[in-house]
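Can't paste images in this forum, so I'm doing it all in text. The chain is below; anyone willing to post the predicted structure tokens underneath?
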Amino acid sequence: MRRTKEQAEQTRADILAAAEQLFLEKGVAHSTLDQIARAAGVTRGAVYWHFQNKAHLFHEMLSQVRLPPEQMTERLCGCGEVDPLLALRDLCIEAIYNLAVDEQRRRIFTILLHRCEFTDELREAEERHNAFINQFIELVQNLFARPACQARLLPGVTPRLASRAVHALIIGLFTDWTRDPQLFDPQRDTAALIDAQLRGLLHEWNPPAWCPPTQ
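Text version of the structure:
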């Protein structure tokens, strides 16, 4: 039974890997489940055993590289003695930095941002993706709305505006770098880019130097 479970997990991983490669090469809309099954060396029935449809498969592929909402909430809200805005800054830096050090993350975000058209077939995946984005924006807005954090916002900058500005920068950096990796170096430049944004939102933003997470 254990071997059967391991085989099923391997089949699922093979299907996701095949889908990732096809989505990158052909685009999501132009890749079929039949093509994915052939590329993975499995039957179409095996694909449907693990995934309800292409939208579900696409969502599960994204879930491999996105921080689960529960962990994201814990990072930002369960900061303990850590400055919550510093925790937000570090989370944003890590998100971009990891593009350079994680090839799978780079491939999957390239698919999401440059190889995906949200057709009717992918409506479910689009809704889940939008829900994830809105959850992140709301989480950041709630963070800026804390009395201690809101007091640090510059005049005219509301928690709502601050959360949208942070999100816009992150999406812009993801989109630009996956389109043209020569635009900036995620390992060298990301901290300066994020801190420049936060200095435009906060009083006296002078954080300590950022250190990459230990592997």
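The chain has two domains: 2-51, 66-199. The chain has a mean pLDDT of 92.
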